[in-house]
């Protein structure tokens, strides 16, 4: 329609084609993609030779030509069956030959006709046709009127939707009052598919044709409405994008004007992206984005901006949503524990129980495990083994000496150089939200005016509270409930009690020499060999050498010193190999000194001989059990007592109680009445620089005092531990296992312990019991019976004593042996 002039059209429609004059045989031209309706004015480019000839020959037929639609437009040379049998007789109005040989023709549809026969097929088609007349209704009734109006209105709507000028066409349509003509005009403008248009053409009943056109029109209208909507949406979207783009460019330009570069914008965008990626809780995300916005408004090089940047860096690196998958295979866990640790059956068992419960009920908010024991006994490495067996990451933080609450809970961001607390720092480094988190030396936690770190720690550890642990720096809650906290301590007494309440203590008290030898052979030495790049086959340490390393080069409850000695040996061998020495390295007791120097601890008692006024006590220290000498001297004086050797109040009280007991029972020990008034007493505990305290040296003090007053020697092979009451009863003490191990290390052969500690003997390893004789006593007199040697004592210059009941004979054989050993070294 576009090419047709509206006025022409009106004229054409009004002009009646003179049907009678049309020849019965006409040249036929197949047309592609279009069905020509009567009264339609169609510009055609004729390019195919056959068609050109047909058009050219139309001059002979009073410019009439028969136009038939091609069924398949792809067919280049259509045969008889490739065109529809019903078509339109057209009249060529204008014809121009183009320079390329094609013909441009303007053809007007005159009448519908049906092919009767193909008269000529060569050169071009010629067909004999029969005109088909439309069947018009008898009258235009109201129904037809309504139908026509509907078609007209819809056509206008459609044109309006397509953005074409509805006014003129409306005018054109209003002139038409025959249903057939209306149907043809609308159909020719509907862009119908060839098959649909052909079907319309073949309907001769004009009302039926109009009904069909109405249907097609309605469909087309629907389609166009949807299409128009889609187009508007797309347009909106595009214009919104354009608007945003434009605004963003403007913002960029403003920033550029302010001297801020694109880098800033890139950084801000990066932060936003990272925050989204973290998948933190919504409230936290909101807060983080708020900070990004604040950063946006700041000068980028200002100090405040750098604080916010550090903060944002911290937030986005926290493992909000990253966890490792737990492996809870108990058998495997056992293998991992056994592979890395010798002995330690109880702790291992407890760990496996813990893992089993976690496996059956992962949600159980359990107790927090705390390993208690001297340094170097494997607390950390047990924690590592737990992490390894659960396939979790391991992280360790030492709390020793922490006094400031902010170390746990973080500093507020207003402080310069503020940081999150150690727990969140650890998680940030780990990169997962469920590591095995070891808090070392919980017993060394202090507190002062800067707050109490233990209460902050309580919040972090307590399964009831730690889902929303609040760190001052972060200023938003962080879920710690998936972290597996494992604590370690050297002693349980100093652990803050609210924390202690939530813990399950697992004691690891230290190793016997034999255990140490085994651990060295099975674990430490192979590890050191590997660490130093050596080959196991080329080094051999004889059993005697190993025993000597354990007992003559180290004196400790744990294994750190031993580990260092083994490392020294490996290092020295490594140097020799690096210098070109070949062959096997045999380490024996004889050549051990070459590697480690002379032995540092003589495997004998420090005190070669039993002495008067010197008793061996046993002390518990954080580093394990230790022996402790109590020296006593008496000399003429006024009955005063002096205490030296950095001894604490409790120990001083023990000393006083011991003296009082002695004074009260001097007859029993054969000490003369005036002895106390005419002599001063001095009690000294050597290694004076080390503070010592505790009540358990009570019986050792009485023994030393009695020995000093009676001049009877105290056996150097006997160690003792026990508190004393004024009535001479021996009261129970703690840490027996550690003390026993310490006594063994010190070469003591017999240990006197309070009767009430008999139950603790159950925990003492067999290896220790076979080497140490334990005697349980209730009364000090029993102690003296065992500890004092029965020997003639020279009367003191003063008037001290001679009579002593009990006492033992000196073991002369043992003394001789020990002296011989000393001589050798
Ligand atoms: P702690 O944490 O108690 O101070 P560590 O765990 O650091 O002690 O242990 C010190 C060293 O001793 C580590 O190399 C550890 O592997 C080793 N170790 C401790 N106990 C054992 C054991 N029972 N079997 C094997 N090696 C052990």
Please characterize this protein's 3D structure.
This protein is rod-shaped. It is an alpha/beta fold and 825 residues long. Helix 3 packs parallel to helix 7 (206-257), helix 5 runs parallel beside helix 7 and helix 18 runs parallel beside helix 20 (560-578). The strands form 8 sheets. A 7-stranded mixed β-sheet has the order 19-20-18-17-22-25-26. Strand 23 (723-724) and strand 24 form a beta hairpin. It contains 29 helices and 28 strands. The model is unreliable at 13-17 and 792-825 (pLDDT under 50). Helices cover 43% and strands 18% of the residues. The chain binds adenosine-5'-diphosphate. Adenosine-5'-diphosphate (ADP) binds next to helix 13, helix 18 and helix 20.
- End-to-end separation: 125 Å
What bound compounds does this protein have?
adenosine-5'-diphosphate
How many helical stretches? 29
What percentage of residues falls in helices of 4 or more residues? 40-55%
* Annotation, overall tally of beta strands: 28
Widest sheet: strand ordering: 19-20-18-17-22-25-26
Q: What are the low-pLDDT stretches, counting only 5+ consecutive residues below 50?
A: 13-17, 792-825
Structural class: alpha/beta
